Amino acid sequence: MKTKVLEREFSEYDIDKDAWKAEKLHGISALMRLKDDTEFVEWSILSHMRWIDEWVLVVQPSRDHTLELAQEIAEDVKNVRVLEYPFEVEWLTPKVGEMTDNSIASPVHMTNWGLSQCNYSWTAKIEGDVVALPTFQHIRDLVDMRHDDPKYYGRVGLNVAGTDYSMVSKTNPRNAGWDEAVFPTGPKFHCISSQKWETMNMTHYPNLMHNMGWSFMHMKRCKTGASPEDENEQWIKFTKAGVEEALRKYAGKHGEYPGEKGDNPDVIYDWRDSYAK
């Protein structure tokens, strides 16, 4: 069975659901959707490398040389596949909720098409500006020990800020921990539209959702030209006191996040000490 794209002239981007749900070799495929991601994509891949068996890089039209860099990485790094997705995709607009999920302009279709290209039994959905913490090892251990247990392992990340990595977001200090996740490969877990954005359908299976806590640093606010004004938010110094203040205020407004337990693990500061310029 196939999910056919609305625009039939691009039928090569149909999704083959039978192939997607077929039995696969044990391991983790990483899906990356890339656009204007030259600054951190190589770091993101290398930081996750020890736990990932295959990389699927879906590259959209970019203003920089993301495609060329992805192709260079594929030449140097084992098991990296670069798949061009030559269509402009609508992101974070009301149009996302209004368009059909099988349109090539929908991030829902692009993501599901990318997920369907993964060849291993588990998939890690990783953005091109996400750097792994050593705690990703916990997820890999569970995947290996319980490879027939179809859990949805969510990840929590700290939103680092500033081109010298010296700040964190005070307004939005952490990523919630569900879309950046590791889950069994196959149509059961797929992307859906949610008002003006796209998300995974993990809430359809609440008994399978398991939040693994901190396992990445999100570098979006460290890109060249980023500033607090760009995100309509405040930043605070990347110190233990600064991070704790930001997380405490955020939790007071949004509630403690499942799996986070209100704590602040040392791995965050170990990362800062190791990688800060």
Concise overview:
The protein contains 9 helices and 15 strands. It has 277 residues and is α/β, with parallel strands linked by helices.
Write the layout of secondary structure elements.
Elements lengths: L1 E2 L11 E2 H5 L3 E10 L6 H8 L5 E6 L6 H11 L3 E5 L9 H5 L8 H9 L4 E6 L4 E3 L3 H10 L6 E10 L5 E3 L4 E2 L5 E4 L6 E4 L2 E4 L8 E13 L6 H4 L3 E3 L2 H15 L12 H9 L2
Parallel strand pairs: 3-4, 3-6, 4-5, 8-14
Antiparallel strand pairs: 1-2, 6-11, 7-14, 8-9, 8-10, 8-11, 9-15, 12-13
Q: Could you characterize the architecture of this molecule?
A:
- By secondary structure, this protein is an alpha/beta fold.
- The protein has one domain: Spore Coat Polysaccharide Biosynthesis Protein SpsA, Chain A (Alpha-Beta Complex), CATH 3.90.550.
- 27% of the residues lie in helices and 28% in strands.
- It has nine helices and 15 strands.
- It has helices spanning 17-21, 41-48, 66-76, 94-98, 107-115, 136-145, 228-231, 240-254, 267-275, and strands spanning 2-3, 15-16, 25-34, 54-59, 80-84, 120-125, 130-132, 152-161, 167-169, 174-175, 181-184, 191-194, 197-200, 209-221, 235-237.
- The strands form three sheets. Strands 3, 4, 5, 6, 7, 8, 9, 10, 11, 14 and 15 form an eleven-stranded mixed β-sheet that branches. Strands 1-2 form a two-stranded antiparallel sheet.
- The protein is globular and about 55 Å long.
